[in-house]
Amino acid sequence: MGTIDLNKDTFQAAIKESKPLIVDFWAPWCGPCRNFAPIFDQASDQHDDITFAKVNTEDQQELATGMGIRSIPTLMVFREQVLLFSQPGALSASQLAELITQIKAVDMDQVHAEIAAQQSQNDADDA
């Protein structure tokens, strides 16, 4: 499938898609980002059931700041509009493959139930 480029105007729509979303925050001058790019691109070609996206932090500084990016590369994974993973640093091909396996295995019904329970607790604490 390949990767898509995201910007501040397309980011929210991408999160709302039904497929899991893996976002690589990168910059052209970043050596580790350049080394990770072929690994990310290869994975994107192997998994049509996941959207792989890139955010150039030089061009999209507002988005990067809004997402709390302090180090690049940083990977974020969203599924059903929930941030499941956020970590700076390039991954090896095997580490990315393991992450993808874990993403697919997450029980999202349980995740949503935990979020709802936490929200109920927060509401009770605020009352």
TrEMBL record:
The UniProt keyword set, sorted, is:
Disulfide bond, Electron transport, Redox-active center, Transport
Gene Ontology CC: one annotated term? cytosol
InterPro entries on file = Thioredoxin, Thioredoxin-like_sf, Thioredoxin_CS, Thioredoxin_domain
Molecular function in Gene Ontology: protein-disulfide reductase activity
**Keyword Disulfide bond, does the record have it?**
yes
Q: Thioredoxin domain: which residues?
A: 1-105
The keyword Transport appears for this protein? yes
Family, as annotated: Belongs to the thioredoxin family.
What is this protein's name? Thioredoxin
Q: Which organism is it from?
A: Pollutimonas subterranea
Gene this protein is translated from: trxA
